[in-house]
Amino acid sequence: MTYGAFKETLYKGSDPAVRVQLAAHLGITTHQTAHGNEKLLGDWVESIRIARNMTAHHERLWNSKNQKLMPTRPVSHPKDPSWWGNDWDPFRQSSGPAAFLTMEHYLLKQLGVTQWRNDFINPMNRHPQYSHQRNGIPRQLAVTAHLAITNYPPFVTA
Question: Which residue, 45, 84, 96, 156, is the most exposed by fewest CB within 10 angstroms?
Answer without folding.
Answer: 84
